[in-house]
Amino acid sequence: EVQLVESGGGLVQPGGSLRLSCAATGFSFSSETMSWVRQAPGKGPEWISYIGSGGTTIYKDSVKGRFTASRDNAKNTLYLQMNNLKPEDTAMYYCQIFGTTTRGQGTQVTVSS
């Protein structure tokens, strides 16, 4: 069974940092391109990053230079380092197998003073 479990969210002040993790089981993680997706209240899902099996990354312009996606294929884990967080980054964050609708339960990120 495919499972994705996100963690690391929380409440942070503007300008702060968080590191999200996504533990993957039940599929060949190292072979898959993975995405980070977020969804703010009342809005649709928003793709923000993807990372290829070899580590190539692409980012949405609004997070470029602030967010860094990485992966540890030995640990079947995906990461998202988020720096200089802004209130508009507030959302539920999900990891997702690229090209599928398979995602975890999400982890909430709230940026507020």
What this model shows, in words?
The protein contains no helices and ten strands. It has strands at 3-7, 10-12, 18-25, 34-39, 46-51, 57-59, 67-72, 77-82, 91-97, 107-111. With 113 residues, it is an all-beta fold. The strands form two sheets. It has a six-stranded mixed beta sheet with strand order 2-10-9-4-5-6, with no helix packed on it. The N and C termini lie far apart (40 Å). The protein is globular and about 40 Å long. The mean pLDDT is 96.
Task: Explain the layout of strands and helices.
Blueprint: E1 3-7, E2 10-12, E3 18-25, E4 34-39, E5 46-51, E6 57-59, E7 67-72, E8 77-82, E9 91-97, E10 107-111
Parallel strand pairs: 2-10
Antiparallel strand pairs: 1-3, 3-8, 4-5, 4-9, 5-6, 7-8, 9-10
Distance from N terminus to C terminus (CA atoms, Å) equals: 40 Å
- How are helices and strands ordered from N to C? EEEEEEEEEE
Q: Label the overall shape.
A: globular
Q: Quick one: biggest sheet?
A: 6 strands, mixed
Structure class: mainly beta
Strand order of the largest sheet: 2-10-9-4-5-6
Nearest-angstrom radius of gyration? Answer: 13 Å
Number of DSSP strands?
10
Q: What is the tally of helical segments? A: 0
* Arithmetic mean of pLDDT: 96
Q: Regions with pLDDT < 50 over 5+ consecutive residues?
A: none
Helix content: under 10%
Determine the strand fraction and express it as a percent band: over 45%
